[in-house]
Write a structure and sequence with these properties.
With 597 residues, the chain is an alpha+beta fold. Helices cover 56% and strands 12% of the residues. It has 17 helices and 11 strands. The strands form 3 sheets. It has a 5-stranded mixed beta barrel with strand order 4-5-11-7-6.
């Protein structure tokens, strides 16, 4: 069976040393998260991931979900594991205390979700989508809706979904046909069909709350006529008890390449009773709350599959003997040396390791600033937090999942032929990771969102704030000889990112295809630069800690510095290539006529 151990030392480094959560102890939520409590949470979460969810990962992949007579059953063990999740209070970890949540920082929730997803990505989608539904209702629902539905979502007794896609429209939601007709008592009748609905029907919870995009009959065409509705699987009585089954049913389960343990459904709405969430014709505004949270969760999935695949590839490379080192035998008493001696094996492993540690830092750093945007009493801190969340969400979703899939493939490559054999588990990591590049907005859409919307917001305030954060770090640490191997490559990457940003500003307005042609290289350039920034910050902490470190910690910090040096020297130079591609513009891509492809 594949292995997974939660990287607890990494989490402690991020929370206690790099980000120093203790400095925020006076803020709401952080005050309830002292280091000893956080450490206990991490320990218990790791046990849930390693002992309960990991053993179910291959079972879920082999068995999948089943639909019989309209009832969907999840794979063996999933229902019991979900009940353990609920009993442990995990769905309530970062939810508002007003609805029974624990109110802890979302940065801690991100770490918990990484553990769950690394151990069992398909399982983790059930509570993950529920929290997205919670967020949408908590921000856009009426007080009555919040009081009626949120407590059960917070405990995990009920789950939630998001319903956007239809057979004829995915990203282009303006084409959707699902309709809503007013009943006259404040409710609506929802009719239509939705596809690709993750966790759309299952046996884990008593009720499922569907958030459904539909067009009010007679409403405007296009996206300006889309509204959002709450449609429960079972209607809920005034006293909170469950009533009649609503007019929503699972028509079929999608036959998928991966994430077999999650029920991806075709849902049919036949005059199902629903309630408007937010304003009429402004459903996308409310749904984007859920979508943006989901996009961060999907970026996390890219990291999680990269981490799980990496751990298994390292174990295999250390144990598997194959060939001799190019510089002479390393293990004389054996007929061959372990794979780990070969430079190309190390290249693949270090590409993955340096990404994992840097990407995790960027993810938690971003989540922390998201927390501060809501909890800080300083206007500038709140503004910076809002800006970083908006700017980096498409980068985390798009770049992390592109790279996460590539890393899973490279980990599979370390195994050679054995990586192609199902029982070793690498095939599942590759197949599961592949979906993360597609859903919640395919990565090309994320790149367009970054270039077409996020760069220009507030006159470019967010991207220039990001540049300033790098410049401030470089100004403070540029004279430190030990940090020059980090600061100098970081500044080169930052220069390439700024040059690409200015090129879009100068060229994309006159020809929008330039933005489309360069958007994915730009997203990758941004991702590499963001991770380089984190590696520079981590290297500073590691160097500062080395002098007084004991043996175990000393080895950890030295390894951290070596891994960061690899990223700066072998990965960061990619930014120059991305810049060249961007500057070539759209002309080479648009030169062929349609019949020349």
């Amino acid at each position: 069976m594949p292995i997974y151990k939660a990287p607890l030392r990494e989490y402690r480094f991020l929370l206690n040393e790099l980000l120093d959560f203790s400095q925020y102890a006076s803020l709401p939520g952080f005050a309830d998260a002292p280091a000893d409590l956080v450490d206990a949470i991490l320990e218990e979460a790791s046990k849930l991931a390693e002992e309960v969810l990991l053993p179910l990962n291959q079972i879920g992949d082999r068995e999948g979900c089943k639909l019989e007579n309209g009832v969907v059953t999840t794979p063996k063990g999933f229902k019991e594991a979900y009940q353990l999740l609920v009993d442990g209070g995990w769905p309530a970890l970062v939810a508002d205390t007003a609805y029974g949540g624990q109110g802890l920082p979302n940065a801690l929730g991100v770490i918990f979700n990484e553990m769950v997803s690394s151990a069992n990505m398909a399982f983790g989608m059930y509570p993950g989508l529920s929290h997205g539904a919670y967020s949408a209702l908590s921000q856009h629902g009426t007080r009555e809706q919040q009081e009626k539905y949120l407590p059960k979502l917070v405990t995990g007794e009920w789950t939630g979904t998001m319903n956007l896609t239809e057979p004829h429209c995915g990203t282009d939601l303006g084409l959707l046909r699902s309709k809503a007709v007013p009943v006259g008592d404040g409710s609506w009748k929802i009719s239509g069909q939705k596809i690709f609905i993750s966790a759309g029907e299952h046996d884990l919870a008593d009720n499922i709350l569907h958030l459904v995009l539909a067009r009010i009959e007679g409403g405007p065409e296009g996206v300006k006529g889309i509204s959002l509705f709450l449609v429960p699987k079972f209607l809920v009585n005034d006293d909170g008890s469950l009533g009649n089954r609503n007019g929503v049913s699972c028509g079929s389960l999608e036959e998928k390449m991966g994430i077999h343990g999650n029920a991806t459904c075709v849902l049919n709405y036949d005059e199902a009773i629903g309630w408007l969430v937010g304003e009429e014709h402004k459903g996308l505004r409310a749904m984007f709350t859920m979508m943006n949270e989901a996009r961060l969760g999907v970026g996390l999935q890219g990291l999680s599959q990269s981490e799980a695949a990496y751990q298994n590839a390292v174990a295999y490379a250390v144990e598997r003997i194959q060939g001799r080192s190019l510089t002479g035998p390393k293990e004389e008493g054996k007929p061959a040396d372990p794979l780990i001696v070969h430079p190309d094996i190390r290249r693949m492993l270090l590409d993955i390791k340096s990404f994992n540690e840097g990407a995790r830092a960027l993810l938690v750093w971003t989540a922390l600033h998201g927390d501060l945007s809501h909890r800080s009493d300083d206007d500038k801190t709140r503004e910076f937090g809002d800006d970083m969340m908006a700017l980096l969400t498409p980068v985390l979703k798009g770049y992390f999942t592109d790279r996460g899939f590539m890393n899973a493939v490279d980990a599979q490559q370390v195994y050679g032929g054995h990586g192609y054999i199902e029982e070793n588990g690498l095939s599942q990591f590759v197949r599961d990771a592949r979906i993360a590049m597609i859903y919640e907005g395919a990565n090309g859409v994320q790149a367009l969102d970054l270039v077409g919307r996020k760069l220009a917001q507030n006159g470019g305030r967010a991207v220039f704030a990001f540049f300033k954060a790098i410049d401030d770090f470089a100004a403070e640490n540029g004279g430190n000889e030990k940090l020059k191997p980090f600061v100098e490559p970081l500044l080169r990457a930052r220069k390439d990112l700024e040059a690409a940003t200015l090129w879009f500003m100068e060229n994309a307005l006159q020809n929008p295809d330039h933005a489309g042609a360069g958007s994915t290289p730009y997203m990758h350039l941004f991702g590499v630069t963001g991770i380089a920034f984190m590696w520079a910050k981590m290297a500073k902490v590691a160097h500062d800690k080395l002098a007084a470190a004991k043996d175990g910690d000393r080895a950890y910090y030295e390894t951290k510095i070596k891994t960061g040096r690899y990223y700066m020297e072998h990965v960061v130079p990619e930014t120059a290539t991305h810049l060249v591609r961007i500057r070539h513009g759209a002309d080479p891509m648009m030169a062929l006529a349609a019949n020349e492809f």
